[in-house]
Amino acid sequence: MKTNKNKSAQKAVVLLSGGVDSTTTLAVAANDGFNIYALSFRYGQRHLVELAAACRVAQHFNVADHLIVDIDLRLMGGSALTADIAVPKDRIVEKMGKDIPVTYVPARNTIFLSYALAWAEVIGSNKICIGVNALDYSGYPDCRPEYISAYEKMANLATKASVEGRQKLKIQAPLIKLSKAGIIKLGMQLGVDYSLTHSCYDPTAQGLACGRCDSCLLRLKGFKDAGLADPVQYKG
């Protein structure tokens, strides 16, 4: 599936990690006719396989622009993704949302959305799209509907464009009420090629998914519940 770079179309800033959720979110925005400005981050995460996936996805959708921002959340640490903390493995999927796991990166979505807000103001966009999900969200507090609503309210108080009446920003989270299976089914309807994506928190040196971390387990369950085979390769 390719996006059409229509000069008259509205612009959408889409947070793109290269995983199932962000890729499906990008596909939704593209299907809605937006010119896509994809935003990814090299933030000190354990691996850069996901950024390679984000680049593949952005190229596949022929986005208007793809910006990769360098920040270093390792300076604060506090997460298994940005510090020397073991990534949890082999957890029971049904129990994942009962607590906030160590793979939570402190304030990550708030930081990412702040960059998206800045870029949206610069390019004249009224829409930011983020692939958060409140059902299969692994206990992350910054994936809840009330968080998105609160950030949107703040964002419309924060910029010169909004104060001057030139921008009424909407933060769209089209997957927020969907299960992982529902997200995958939606993506398939939109022609998403999930072989381009990557979800694993702890891949091998060759980039193979571990199949045991929370993200892998949620992804595998999603494909199984959707009646589909996951097209990416797993270790062993």
Describe this structure in words.
The structure is a single chain. This protein has 236 residues and is an alpha/beta fold. The protein is built from 7 helices and 5 strands. It has helices at 20-31, 49-60, 108-123, 145-158, 160-163, 180-189, 214-225, and strands at 11-15, 35-42, 65-70, 127-129, 170-172. It has a 5-stranded parallel β-sheet, sandwiched between helices. The two termini are 31 Å apart. The model has no long low-confidence stretch (mean pLDDT 93).
Write a brief caption for the model:
The protein has 236 residues and is of the alpha/beta class. The chain has a 5-stranded parallel beta sheet, with helices on both faces. Helix 1 crosses helix 6 and helix 6 packs across helix 7.
Indicate the overall shape: globular
Mean pLDDT: 93
Unreliable spans are none
Beta-strand content = 5-15%
The ordered string of helix (H) and strand (E) elements is EHEHEHEHHEHH
Overall strand count: 5
What's the story with the biggest beta sheet? 5 strands, parallel
- The first-level CATH class is given as Alpha Beta
- The CATH architecture category equals 3-Layer(aba) Sandwich
Instruction: State the distance separating the first and last CA atoms.
Output: 31 Å
Query: What topology, given as strand order, has the largest sheet?
Result: 3-2-1-4-5
Rg estimate, integer Å: 17 Å
Task: Tell me the number of structural domains.
Answer: 1
* Helical proportion, percent range: 25-40%
What is the number of helices? Answer: 7
CATH superfamily: HUPs
User: In terms of structural class, how would the helical and strand content be classed?
Assistant: alpha/beta
